[in-house]
Amino acid sequence: MAIAKKSVVWVLFAAGGTISSFLFPALITLFLLIALGFTPDGLQYEQFHTFAASLLGKACLFVVLFLSLWHAAHRLRVVFHDFGVRKDRLIANAVYLVATVGTVMTAFYLYMI
Amino acid sequence: MSRQPYVRPFSKTTWYMRNGRYKVYMLREMTCLLVGFYAFLTIFALAALAAGADQWNNFLASQQNTAMIAFHAFALLYFLFYQTFAWFKLAPKAMPLQLGEKILPGSIIVIGHYVAWAVLSAVIFWLAGVI
Predict the structure, then answer these.
(1) How many domains does chain A have?
(2) Is residue B66 part of a domain?
(3) What is the mean predicted confidence (pLDDT) over B77-83?
(4) Least confident of A89-93, B43-47, B101-105
(5) I need a surface site. Which of A96, A110, B60, B122 has the fewest CB within 10 A?
(6) What percent of chain B shows pLDDT beyond 90?
(7) Is residue B13 assigned to a domain?
(8) Is A113 helix (H, G, I), strand (E, B) or coil?
(9) pLDDT exceeds cutoff 50 at B115
(10) For residue B60, how many other CB atoms are within 10 A of its CB?
(11) How far from B23 is each of A77, B17, B18, B85, B89, CA to CA, in Å?
């Protein structure tokens, strides 16, 4: 059972790492453009709402956010260990809880759009 | 006479400072904080989007300040070098590809990742109306 659980976490970590490596540079660039005051047309309310309201848009946003959250959670768990924190059970519960909350929030807000 | 086995001095909290490779490893692992930050920033953006046009425009306005510009610029560079390029570099070691008798050279896999990254980034920028 321990091995089975580990492999699930590992698959989520690897998939999230791959997807964030590919997509987050563009995502951060978009946030940088917004911060600079150059909000692109596709991120104005009407256009972005249309995208996020479509089934494909919802599916893409959900998969990217879900996997990225679980990737970050698992890596953060290991980072705590690397910095000398030896309370793995507590850390694991905390980081996976945050990832679960983020996943539920993503699903809820996408449902509301 | 009791034996006293040698115990290598080892710090649980600062072990990575002894070696450049360990430091790079730690810098690489810390990218998880950026992944988490941008995942939640995007979730808050979706919350604003779900709340309507006014909330969405308020969200956009709340993001427009010098601190966020500096943070995004730093995050972009940090993320590129310690997550994206590091992940691509490790890809052939994590997922070696065998075609028949031959093992695909790692450089091909790495180049493939860079090409896919360029295409995916272009698609996102096109969807967002940047290009």
Answers:
(1) 1
(2) yes
(3) 98
(4) B101-105
(5) B122
(6) 81
(7) yes
(8) coil
(9) yes
(10) 18
(11) 18, 6, 8, 17, 17
Question: Do residues A25 and B120 touch, judged by C-beta distance below 8 A?
Answer: no
Residue B128: closest CA among A26, A111, A80: A26
Partner A, chain B 60-119, Cβ-Cβ below 8 Å:
60, 63-65, 68-69, 72-73, 75-76, 79-80, 83-84, 87-88, 94, 116-117
Residue B65 to residue A35, Cβ atoms within 8 A: yes
Question: Cα-Cα-Cα-Cα dihedral of B54, B57, B63, B65, to 10°?
Answer: -110
ipTM for this model: 0.95
- Tokens 């450089």 sit on residue: B107
CATH number for the domain including A36? 1.20.1300.10
The residues of chain A scoring below 70 in pLDDT are 1-4
Domain containing B7 — which CATH number? 1.20.1300.10
| DSSP strand pairing (B102-103 vs B98-99) | antiparallel
Q: Is the dihedral of CA B82, B84, B87, B91 positive or negative?
A: negative
pLDDT of residue A1: 45
Q: What amino acid is encoded at A102 in this protein?
A: G
Segments forming the whole domain that contains residue B50:
1-74
CB-based contact B117 A22, cutoff 8 Å: yes
Q: What is the pTM of this model?
A: 0.93
Q: What pLDDT is recorded for position A3? A: 62
Backbone φ, ψ for residue B98 (5° rounding): -110, 125
User: Is A68–B35 a contact, with Cβ atoms under 8 angstroms apart?
Assistant: yes
CB contact under 8 A, A32 and B69: yes
Q: How many domains does chain B have?
A: 1
Contacts of A30 (CB under 8 A, 6+ apart): A40, A43, B124, B128, B130
